[in-house]
Amino acid sequence: CVLVWCFSQVKGAVDDDVAEADIISTVEFNHSGELLATGDKGGRVVIFQQEQENKTQSHSRGEYNVYSTFQSHEPEFDYLKSLEIEEKINKIRWLPQKNAAQFLLSTNDKTIKLWKISERDKRPEGYNLKEEDGRYRDPTTVTTLRVPVFRPMDLMVEASPRRIFANAHTYHINSISINSDYETYLSADDLRINLWHLEITDRSFNIVDIKPANMEELTEVITAAEFHPNSCSTFVYSSSKGTIRLCDMRASALCDRHSKLFEEPEDPSNRSFFSEIISSISDVKFSHSGRYMMTRDYLSVKIWDLNMENRPVETYQVLGENHFECCWNGSDSIVMTGSYNNFFRMFDRNSKRDITLEASRENNKPRTVLKPRKVCASGKRKKDEISVDSLDFNKKILHTAWHPKENIIAVATTNNLYIFQDKMN
Amino acid sequence: MLGRGLKRKLSDYEENMAGLSSAFDSSRSLPYPLKRQLVLNMCLTKLQTYKMLVEPNLHRSVLIANTVRQIQEEMRQESNQQPVNICPGIAPASHSYTGLESPGISLQLPSGISQQESHCCDLRSFPENTGLKLEDDRQDLKGAECVFGSFEISNSTSYLKDLAIDDIFEDIDTSMYDSDFCCPPLMPPRSPSLICRTDLSELDHIMEILVGS
Fold first, then answer.
1. Is the dihedral of CA A127, A133, A138, A144 positive or negative?
2. How far is A41 from chain B (nearest CA, A)?
3. Which of A102, A350, A355, A405 could form a disulfide bond with A117, CB atoms 3.0-4.6 angstroms apart?
4. Across the interface, do A273 and B35 touch by the CB < 8 Å criterion?
5. Cβ–Cβ contact B77 with A under 8 A
């Protein structure tokens, strides 16, 4: 059954006057779910860490508190083209943890960076030649020899850029995706997809190029791309024409010819002036199992079986536009996407039930159960329902993320991050 | 087995959503060719606006350009099938765009047309011909496609070697898209018909939601 959800936390400024730099542009849990990263329009990354569960508070899971904040990207000016390059973080992707440090990739429109986040909770004390404050001692006063020892200090979390992958994209980067080999990753812009090795910054391989010889013939752009979670040679990319192409890198160096093309034939009775616009896919995500993929377009969320190209196996109606993302829960049984009016929707694939919830400060007491919302056609409004005419189309939930193992979700409104969890017991 | 591939039984929410998506085709008071022309004008206006940006959004431009192409293709097919004007309420104006340059021209309507339609058609910002002529279509199409020409130039690393910008655009008559006539007032200064204005702003609203500004 569709879970019952409770408010857990909200992060961000309370007032309605939103500073543009604070607008959240991406949300991503790491592989364990312990860390939750957000990127914003001002180029900053904020990482939250889940508290260790307290045995005495077994009725709720650990809270997320700020762990690290750093400036990932700065605005840049391209002098050759007279263009400003926005510092807005388009995507964050975590690497799986290999040692004590955490690594993530963050990208703006043009440059991808690999960040190392490490903890320091000890420092060496007792130098021979230096005072504790760093000043050098007068050598004539040094009469004994001692070995510095590490002593505990307040936890410091440091973020340092380890790699900068630049100058490979003419158009705006919309996706990054780490390969299951954990050594390579792809970056996609409107017309091209490049393959990188995490250790090598001075070159990348172009694996998809849909730029026509004559730009005036351009009719389609790439909207999202992702590597398959298990098969290291497989990736998909979605387009503004509503198609998804699955490519196998073993077939050729340049994957311009797809291995599979997923497209639902258009229902001619649904044709309208806006058909071209509403068929555009805004996001594509593989299920954790790798058996399915989910796409988000203007009016629906579709689940595709990778073995069937001619139509999706499930379709769920929801309102959106060309930047809404979608995500799977850990067991691939529920999918979630955002909508307008700060609503977000969840669809249980097994029971076929769905729920609409709202991210709002009105429900901000911890463990308050969220009331399901209902949107109705204009004129037929019942009590507590919202008419589609009164939806606030400026309040969009573009970015949502689901904890990989637990029923904890992070939902970003314009400048606030809401964390909800399912009602335990 | 078709089970899961079919849409589920419509819930209230889905009915509503279906209603909203059919609002894109809204069967309101405007006759279809007029609605189509409105949408076409809106799209061309947007393309013109995008062209003026230093770095237009490629995704949005492609979506709008495709919409323009779709509408023009439809118009082309209709004009191939029917040599007669589809929109009988609008008298054909002079056969070139120079007609637009004299703002005093208003559309002459046969008396048989209903009052409502005549109000709708009396908007001076409409281009004279409703794009039924092939020549007009080609002009429109070039208007749409020359957006991407500018992408090429601003984004190509070898643009310094390429044709001068003027060469690419020299044969395109963009007088139709001069901002005086096309943007933004698709709304008449004094709207004679409330229904008309609602429809315009509704379409505009839908475009805003779908594509943004």
1. negative
2. 17
3. A102
4. yes
5. no
Short-list A340, A346, A352, CA closest to A395: A340
| Backbone dihedral region for residue B2 (phi beyond 0: left; psi -120 to 50: alpha; all else: beta) | alpha
Q: Does pLDDT of B210 surpass 50?
A: yes
Choose among B8, B71, B156: nearest Cβ to A273.
B71
Q: Do B58 and A223 touch (CB under 8 A)?
A: no
Q: Which two tokens stand for residue B118?
A: 């005549």
A352 touches chain B (CB under 8 A): yes
pLDDT (mean) for B184-198: 44
Which residue type, as a one-letter code, is found at position A15?
D
| Cβ within 8 Å of residue A266, ≥6 positions away | A275, A279
- Flag if A322 and B70 touch (Cβ within 8 Å): no
- Residue B21 has phi, psi (to 5 degrees) of -70, -25
Decide: helix, strand or coil at residue B67.
helix
Backbone angles phi, psi at A71, to 5 degrees: -85, 110
Q: Is the pLDDT of residue B155 over 70?
A: no
- Residues 6 or more apart whose CB falls under 8 angstroms from that of A397 comprise A324, A338, A339, A342, A343, A344, A359, A411, A412, A413
pLDDT of residue B213: 56
Instruction: Looking at the complex, report in whole angstroms how far the Cα of residue A46 sits from the nearest Cα belonging to chain B.
Output: 27
What does the block give as tokens for A358?
């709202």
**Is B22 in contact with B14 (CB distance < 8 Å)?**
no
Q: How far apart are CA A325 and CA A75, in angstroms?
A: 25
pLDDT score recorded for residue A388: 79
Lowest mean pLDDT among A29-33, B53-57, B141-145: B141-145
Q: Where are the alpha helices (DSSP H) in A186-274?
A: none
Question: Nearest residue on chain A to B206, judged by CA atoms?
Answer: A274
Residue A185 has what pLDDT?
98
Close Cβ partners of A183 (under 8 Å, ≥ 6 residues apart): A197, A198, A199
Q: Please tell me which of the candidates B65, B155, B206 has its beta carbon nearest to residue A170.
A: B155
Question: Do A130 and A87 touch, CB atoms closer than 8 A?
Answer: no
Residues of B in contact with A81 (CB under 8 A): 55, 154-155
- Mean per-residue pLDDT of chain A: 91
Give the residue from A83, A238, A276, A323 with the most B CB atoms within 10 Å of its CB, the best one to mutate: A276
Q: What's residue A108's pLDDT?
A: 96
CB nearest B14 (choices: A275, A317, A380): A317
Q: What is the pLDDT of residues A215-228, one digit of tens each?
A: 888 999 999 999 99
Per-residue buried b or exposed e for A391-404, using 16+ beta carbons within 10 Å of the residue's own CB: beeebbbbbbbbbb
Please give the Cα distance from A55 to B103 (Å, whole number).
79
